[in-house]
Write a structure and sequence with these properties.
- This protein folds into three domains: about 30-125, Alpha-helical ferredoxin (Fumarate Reductase Iron-sulfur Protein, Chain B, domain 2, Orthogonal Bundle); about 145-240 and about 380-440, FAD/NAD(P)-binding domain (3-Layer(bba) Sandwich), CATH 3.50.50.60; about 240-380, FAD/NAD(P)-binding domain (3-Layer(bba) Sandwich).
- The protein is about 35% helix and about 20% strand.
- It has 17 helices and 17 strands.
- The chain has helices spanning about 15-20, 30-40, 50, 60-70, 70-80, 85-90, 100, 105-110, 115-125, 150-160, 180, 195-200, 220-225, 255-265, 285-295, 315-325, 420-440, and strands spanning about 145, 165-170, 205-210, 230-235, 240, 255, 275-280, 300-305, 330, 335-340, 345-355, 360-370, 375, 380, 390, 395, 410.
- The strands form five sheets. It has a five-stranded parallel β-sheet with strand order 3-2-1-4-17, with helices on both faces. Strands 6-13-7-8-9 form a five-stranded parallel β-sheet. A three-stranded antiparallel β-sheet has the order 10-11-12, with no helix packed on it.
- Bound molecules: flavin-adenine dinucleotide and iron/sulfur cluster.
- The site of iron/sulfur cluster has 14 residues, from helix 3, helix 4 and helix 8.
Amino acid sequence: MPAQPQTGPVAGRLPADTLARNFADLHSPLSAHEARVAADRCYFCHDAPCVTACPTEIDIPLFIREIQAGRPETAAREIFEANILGGMCARVCPTEVLCEGACVREAAEGKPVQIGLLQRHATDSLMARQGHPFTRAARTGKRVAVVGAGPAGLSCAHRLARHGHDVVIFEGAPKPGGLNEYGIAAYKSVDEFAAREAAWIMEIGGIELRHGQWLGGEITLETLRDEYDAVFLGIGLSGVNALGLDGPKVEGMHDAVTFISALRQCEDLSTLPIGRDVVVIGGGMTAIDCAVQAKGLGAETVTLVYRRARERMGASRFEQDLAAQRGVRLIFEAAPVAVEGEGRLSGVVFERMGEGSEGLAPTGDRFTLPADQMFRAVGQRLGDASGLKTVRGKVVTQGSGRTDMDKVWAGGDCGVGGDDLTVTAVAQGRDAAEDIHGTLTD
Ligand SMILES: Cc1cc2nc3c(=O)[nH]c(=O)nc-3n(C[C@H](O)[C@H](O)[C@H](O)COP(=O)(O)OP(=O)(O)OC[C@H]3O[C@@H](n4cnc5c(N)ncnc54)[C@H](O)[C@@H]3O)c2cc1C
Ligand code: SF4
């Protein structure tokens, strides 16, 4: 069949009801009855492997027992004690490689306890009630600056506020939540959950949130260190890696994170332009989210191309299968080498890759995919390091996030220990807060 001429991105490829279906909640929440039935499957293991697999070490059997006993709100308190963003983590954690992947019932029957859905049931129950579950300790008179209102910053700020410190969050973007607000796939966090969760976290009191405050712009690390007793950096990775490709300069090449951010902030998805033939380059969660959402907006073909073998993909098997079910074609062991088009992108040339004794190498075998839109999802890097020591593009930290600079801690994606998961960022923000608290009250 001859290739159809490329038209470029167009808005409104699908009717409103189809768009609503494509971006609906990925998992339906459990009813109270379903939650009790799911909780009944837990063996309440000693030294439970699910707990060890959770970066925030939530006491999973304990909270499941509370749900089983019909006390979801007590269960939620247990969860929030370890992870104040337990509501978001219940929605976005790749549980298949964390708690549920480690569950003994997964090993025995290939069917783990539904820990993620149970956690969502508990946290949603408590968050639907009036009032915040924690109160602040007496004020200490110490002031801490937190830079970045993503999962790491919010978690750190909440824990510090609980200990009685006064916290100011300096955030560059107009809304709090970091990638919860601007990055996570729309179908994982529906109904403005990121904004509602951030507002709920602030209910602890003692946290002031200042927007439009960029480190390296409106504020500097030097002044923060002068004016505050401690500083926590949770600035994530705002830079985007480039792809050096041959070929003409053409329209239609985008960065996946920018596209997803625009999609998350778009009030009417029928106004968001999308190509007819979309190519996504990358192998992580961002690549999958970009591809699935491009398909959801109405792209006719979406092809995700990853340069290594399937097993090496950063995205879990669940995410890969989700993409395939939603009509995304996955191609492995191929890397982009050039783009084609006159003014507008019309195709992307790939070369097959092979794992040889010297590692990954091009084989010389090339093919071209027709494309009028291409998204790069090949990793992000640190924006402003503010003079801190870095290694492989991340801030060097030791212990619970201490940097090489006096009074400065860092955590989440921007730190060397970050592994690009919401739950890890939450754990590191919390642990840095405990370390800061210990230092300030020594
Ligand atoms: C598209 C995408 C999808 C993802 N999907 C998942 C998923 O499904 N599940 C999962 O577990 N993880 C997912 N992740 C990873 C997860 O979102 C991150 O690991 C997590 O958000 C890191 O939290 P953080 O607080 O360290 O950084 P961020 O969430 O990036 O927050 C950093 C905050 O700092 C602010 N900031 C940055 N620079 C400055 C500055 N110079 N001055 C002031 N403020 C600044 C930013 O505006 C932002 O609010 C995804 C990531 C992406 C990109
Ligand atoms: S490993 Fe599975 S069965 Fe055991 S406590 Fe955790 S959730 Fe329950």
